[in-house]
Amino acid sequence: MTRNYEVVVIGGGPVGTVALALLGHAGIHAVGIERDVDLWSQARAVHFDGETMRALQGIGIGDQVLARCRPMTNVRMENEAGETLMAQPTGQRGPQAWHDDVMFHQPEVDALLRAEVERLPGVELRLGTTLVGLEQDDRRAHCRVQNADGTSEVLAARWVIGCDGAWSTVRGLLGIPSRAWARMIRGWSSTVVCATAPGSPATWSSSATTRALPCG
Ligand SMILES: Cc1cc2nc3c(=O)[nH]c(=O)nc-3n(C[C@H](O)[C@H](O)[C@H](O)COP(=O)(O)OP(=O)(O)OC[C@H]3O[C@@H](n4cnc5c(N)ncnc54)[C@H](O)[C@@H]3O)c2cc1C
């Protein structure tokens, strides 16, 4: 069975959920898929910057997020001898007009993001759904997915956005290698990969983790 969308987002972590919320706010019919059924209860990230706050503001949840976060005051790193290696006053408002260093509890912010997606018409996040295959013809990309009950189906779309984290299935299926620095910090890196609309050249961006592929 094939379902059709304008965009399919792979991965329901913070990057995929923000992408889905942005699509929802833009009135674009999209579906996100997330392999896990439950939200991760443990934090990976603990800190973000003003640019992230600006993105969260863009989907309408800036104030809600800030109410659950704490801007950092001062940062000092020291060695075992207690000598200061680096000290920096933080907690200032930066160029994005938000604090540049914000501490947060990731499961709480992830839950806010998911709630925003649920609230928006035209987008949905399907949990317990795993990308297992990705092909494209001259019109659309076709994502073969496996559901939690073992059934499989195809989600077809003009665009596919891969936000499936450091061990990205999308990267694997598209044959996109990790660069040396990305391999070194695989546990930390986010990946956004797009299969794109007609006429777009296949290019690597300078950020090294983004690649656009023409799709029809
Ligand atoms: C210990 C640690 C500390 C960190 N601290 C920070 C920090 O302080 N600040 C910061 O900005 N970042 C930090 N990071 C990095 C942080 O984890 C990422 O910034 C953030 O999680 C990236 O979000 P993401 O949505 O790209 O990926 P992820 O959070 O990894 O989400 C990817 C999602 O895709 C899903 N997925 C994977 N494969 C498939 C598939 N085939 N089908 C369907 N779904 C799939 C996964 O289940 C997952 O939910 C830290 C990471 C670690 C490990």
Which class of secondary structure composition applies to the elements? Answer: alpha/beta
Bound molecules: flavin-adenine dinucleotide
What's the helix-strand series? Answer: EHEEHHEEEEHEEEEHHEEE
- Strand residue percentage: 25-35%
Low-confidence stretches at least 5 residues in length (pLDDT < 50)?
A: 185-189, 196-216
Q: Based on DSSP secondary structure assignment, what is the total number of beta strands?
A: 14
Helix segment tally: 6
CATH class category label of the largest domain: Alpha Beta
Distance, first to last CA? 21 Å
Overall morphology: elongated
Sheet of most strands: 9 strands, mixed
Q: Helical residue percent?
A: 10-25%
CATH architectural category of the largest domain: 3-Layer(bba) Sandwich
User: What Rg is obtained from the alpha carbons, in whole angstroms?
Assistant: 19 Å
For this structure, the CATH topology of the largest domain is FAD/NAD(P)-binding domain
Q: What is the CATH H-level superfamily of the largest domain?
A: FAD/NAD(P)-binding domain
Mean pLDDT: 84
